[in-house]
Design brief:
This protein is an alpha/beta fold and about 280 residues long. It folds into 3 domains: about 1-85, Translation factors (Elongation Factor Tu (Ef-tu), domain 3, Beta Barrel); about 90-205, Nucleotide-binding domain of ferredoxin-NADP reductase (FNR) module (Rossmann fold), CATH 3.40.50.80; about 210-275, no CATH class. The chain is about 30% helix and about 30% strand. The chain contains 8 helices and 17 strands. It has helices at about 20-25, 65-70, 110-120, 140-145, 165-175, 185-200, 235, 245-270, and strands at about 1-10, 15-20, 35, 45-50, 50, 55-60, 80, 80-85, 100-105, 125-130, 150-155, 160, 180-185, 205, 225, 230, 240. Helix 6 (about 185-200) packs antiparallel against helix 8 (about 245-270). The radius of gyration is 18 Å and the shape is globular. The N and C termini lie far apart (about 40 Å). The relative contact order is 0.13. Bound molecules: nicotinamide-adenine-dinucleotide (NAD) and FE2/S2 (inorganic) cluster.
């Protein structure tokens, strides 16, 4: 069993947990993820290893469906049934001098270990971070420890620029040159960032989180088309150079699962009408 040693509510939708998982922690690298099961009947929940030390890992999750709601019911002192990892290919750290991180909402969590690694290796790192409201800007204090500049955007204008992260990035590109941009957030945000970056000749890396089941390349569920070829996010990613990704296909599949998930959650969580 894997004990939860710390839990923090980051906003209405998003929570952070520190979980004791020494094997995973000892071997974790930026870009790796793990799969959690809350109990023995639980679905497998893939989550980025946001931080780690010798014995524990930090995960951040959004309460979206049945399984993340169950996870959210666990408190510090409780245990998780299993934690498998580290999974996925560690981030390919490019030989670049300047990096612009672009974080959309919960995407701030998977972006964190990557940007931190670039900063550790001496790159000048800036960040554009966006969310629906000020409360949805995640890990800002942590990012301040190594980012040169941080630029904010909120959909409702409650902090920083009122609008999308891509608008802030485009403004930056008028005066600044970056060797690489790493964009992580909703698919539509990553797609629009790639289009923008192509216009300004900036390379883009992204992290993908399609629905995963086994996390070992066997089920084919996390497939993604990259440069016309099928790749699996769990074993070939989750990080990919973004230019060749078929985001439209991913969005169609994600919408399919979202409507299925709503249906399943209603069945599992709503009491049966016995009348
Ligand atoms: P959200 O919908 O609140 O959007 C976050 C930010 O993304 C917005 O504030 C905005 O700045 C930007 N954005 C949104 N739509 C945009 C558009 N059309 N063009 C440009 N920028 C846009 O996001 P959320 O609810 O915090 O995150 C949920 C989404 O993030 C889910 O779809 C989830 O799958 C995805 N996600 C991805 C990863 C990953 O590894 N890629 C990890 C966690 C979550
Ligand atoms: Fe099954 Fe990736 S989750 S192949």
């Amino acid at each position: 069993m894997y004990e939860i040693t710390y839990k923090e509510i980051l906003n209405n939708d998003v929570e952070l947990m520190v979980v004791n998982a020494p094997f995973v922690a000892k071997n974790a690298k930026p870009g790796n993820f793990l799969i959690v099961r809350v109990d023995e009947f639980g679905e497998r929940i893939p989550l980025t290893i946001v931080k780690h030390d010798e014995t524990s890992v930090t995960i951040i999750y959004q309460k979206l469906g049945y399984s993340t709601t169950l996870l959210s019911q666990k408190q510090a002192g409780d245990s998780l049934f299993d934690v498998v990892g580290p999974l996925g290919v560690p981030t390919h750290i490019r030989d670049v001098k300047s990096v612009l991180g672009i974080a959309g909402g919960v995407g701030s969590a998977p972006l964190y270990p990557q940007l931190e690694e670039y900063a550790k290796r001496g790159a000048a790192v800036d960040l554009v971070i966006g969310g629906r409201t000020k409360e949805h800007l995640l890990l800002v204090e942590d990012y301040k420890k190594f980012c040169r500049n941080i630029y904010f955007a909120t959909d409702d204008g409650s902090f920083g620029h009122k609008g999308f992260v891509t608008q802030v990035a485009e403004e930056l590109y008028q005066n600044k040159q970056y060797d690489l941009s790493i964009a992580i957030g909703p698919l539509i945000m990553m797609k629009n960032t790639v289009l923008l970056n192509k216009k300004y000749n900036v390379l883009t890396d992204v992290s993908l989180n399609p629905i995963m089941i086994d996390g070992t390349g066997m089920c084919g569920n996390c497939r993604v088309t990259v440069n016309g070829e099928t790749r699996f996010a769990c074993v070939d990613g989750p990080d990919f150079p973004a230019e060749g990704i078929d985001f439209d296909e991913l969005m169609v599949r994600q919408n399919y699962y979202k409507s299925e998930e709503k249906h399943i959650c209603r069945m599992k969580l709503e009491p049966k009408d016995e009348s």
